[in-house]
Design goal:
By secondary structure, the protein is α+β, with helices and mostly antiparallel strands. It is built from one helix and eight strands. The chain has one domain. A hairpin with an 8-residue loop joins β7 and β8. The longest helix is centred in the first third of the chain and has 54 residues.
Length: 155
């Protein structure tokens, strides 16, 4: 008697092998796409954090603050007029974008406290920022908020 596999057993084994390979390759491809999206979101978060840090450094030495809903105006330590604003889903400083092209700024809100002259307080600026990565996980919005005070007290 010959020992071996029948044709039906081989077809069943090949069929199961194809199913297992198809499922595992689908999971692998999905995980690669997710990893790319997460890397893109992390890069957008890093860029937005750097832009926010730039704004904070300049606010600390600024004076004569005024704000709108998505705009902050003041005079920096070099006596230059500075305007930060939300325009076309990016943050702009005096009309020039400070956020990268992969960052989608959803909102940029400014709140001032102590901005009136002779109120004896240093101006406190609260910045709220919502960002997402362009092209990847755009529905996922990262919310950032910080409060910074100017070093000078307008007496």
């Amino acid at each position: 008697m010959k020992k071996g596999f029948t044709m039906i057993e081989l077809l069943v084994a090949i069929g199961l092998f194809i199913v297992v390979i198809s499922v595992s390759s689908g999971i692998f491809i999905k995980s690669l796409r997710t990893q790319r999206q997460i890397v893109s979101l992390m890069a957008a978060n890093d860029n937005a954090s750097l832009a926010l840090e730039q704004i904070i450094r300049e606010i600390r030495t600024g004076r004569d603050f005024s704000s709108g809903k998505s705009q902050l105006s003041f005079t920096n330590y070099l006596e230059e007029s500075v305007v930060y604003e939300l325009d076309s889903n990016s943050i702009k400083r005096n009309g020039k974008s400070i956020t990268a092209s992969n960052v989608n700024v959803v909102y940029f809100n400014i709140s001032l406290l102590g901005e009136r002259l002779n109120d004896g307080r240093s101006t406190r600026v609260t910045i709220s920022l919502g960002i997402s990565a362009k092209g990847a996980l755009e529905s996922f919005v990262t919310n950032l908020q910080t409060t910074v005070s100017a070093r000078t007290i307008d007496s």
